[in-house]
Hints:
alpha+beta; 4-stranded antiparallel beta sheet; 9 helices; 10 strands
Amino acid sequence: MTATGHLTTALRLAGAGLPVMPLRAGKLPFGNCPDCTRSACGDRPHMKAAGPCECPAPCHGWAAATTAPGVLTSPAWAGAWRRAHAVAYHPGGAGLTVVDLDNPDAVAWARQNLPATKTMATTRGEHWIYRGTMRSVNGVRDGIDIKSTASYARWRGPGIGTITPLPDVVRALSARKPAAVRSAPSAVGVPATSGGGECPHRSPVYLERGLAMAEQRITGAQSEVHSTVYGTFLAVLSAHGRCGCLTDAHIGRLFTAAQARGESLRHCEVAWSNAIAALGM
């Protein structure tokens, strides 16, 4: 396919809501600019989960994927499209998860163990596409990678079938590998309360409902992700920060949701600390 053809495909996919980006030879993203090589810039707030960074060319790998036609056709991206060998997309940015089956045995396993969904043929196997996001993990089984948040997948065509919800059996696969998206470290928590941490809510259901709503608010943010994350952290701490309800696992869930929208761990830690300070805790 020509450079014009790749860009045409990218614009069509972007119009359908898929954040896209060019790939160079070897299915690799167009590379971090000199200032950002290997995240030397610290992934400052200009780097977004599904939008352009402010560098003069596509940068930050998967995080450079965008649905903005003005960015895709900008002079800064023109050189990348001229050298592009393929188009990739950020599944997590579109609310999707790709199960990448890289050999016939992996495909056979999926057909026996996974619910039917949309599939795309690849050079050596298939991509199975589900609706829903999770952390990306390589090698969950022999020949099987999971690509969703903080990852990209090569566009292989429209595929066949209908996209179905992400099943628990796929989520469970990630438990076999160390987390690719780090949750809150032990240094980030909630200061101890003077009242002994007695919970006035009486039921864990109240906390679980609040956390689920907080996760949905973060993952559903379409813009102003940084302020949404901070505001959500502030709301959770305001409701649960003084009673001893919140554990590291709860905080980790919020951090994971924020990282799925492109926030770095450092940004999560800063937002959490600022929320604690704002509440005088």
